[in-house]
Amino acid sequence: MTPHAEGTPDGRSEPGPGRWSDLGRPPLNAAGLRRGLVRAGGLWTQVDVVQRTGSTNSDLVARADAGGLEEGAVLVAEEQTAARGRLDRRWTAPARSGLFFSVLLRPVEVPVARWGWLPLLTGVAVATGLSRAAGVDTALKWPNDLLVTVGGEERKAGGILAERAGDDGVVIGVGINVSLRDDELPVPTAGSLALAGAVSTDRDPLLRGVLRSLEDWYGRWRAVGGDPGASGLQETYAAGCATLGRVVRAELPGDRELVGEAVAVDGDGRLVLATGEGVQEPVGAGDIVHLRAR
After folding, report:
1. What share of the chain is helix, strand, coil (3-state, %, to 5)?
2. Are 57 and 102 in contact (CB under 8 A)?
3. What's the whole-model pTM score?
4. Are 105 and 121 in contact (CB under 8 A)?
């Protein structure tokens, strides 16, 4: 378990070496985040900020498995050294250049069969929160990527990873590139909120905006037993999904590929592809590559 970061008198996370080496990337205000997010009757029950860790998802899953952790725990890292994406891919980013956090949810009122909507719900919540707080139009690439437009091109600025935690919990991790500069991009197809013209790269209000949006969407979804139609989730996700209407290649388990037009997201959160053979085939897992229109 990663220890909690000690706070400075102003409530910001404890400085590491070279804390002020980049004045454009101040540390998060842990005490201010708690004051703004943790409230009686609300979803968020604790907010911890650590200076550095391998993976907030791994840490929070371990803490949840150990027992005694309430729903609504939030773990934020100023820097991650072993962050994971889907298919156990690794990625890193400079300290304080983004938002790297995980949350623990226990949707016990929702049938487990509908839990697959949680990464999509999180994508909708993040896109909504960033639109309000950063003034950036964030699109969703099925199933878990966050896209921004930089110089007229789609770039990946973030991702989402959901993992089971014990019998009744799900830990959802979110990584968002906030102030990453051109010369810091890990690959040319990456982007950041700053490169997309964000009106603000102050991570404190960005994180509060995203978590408040997630609390709102999770509450709506949970209140109707996870029904994606009744909660408005399915319609909202489809409206913001950059994958729909595109010809894509689905790289599926077992070295199988499927090419077709992405025509819908079904009630189970699967991407429906219309193939050249006139068949509509739902895809529940796999990598999706956006192809140019034929």
Report:
1. 25, 30, 45
2. yes
3. 0.90
4. no
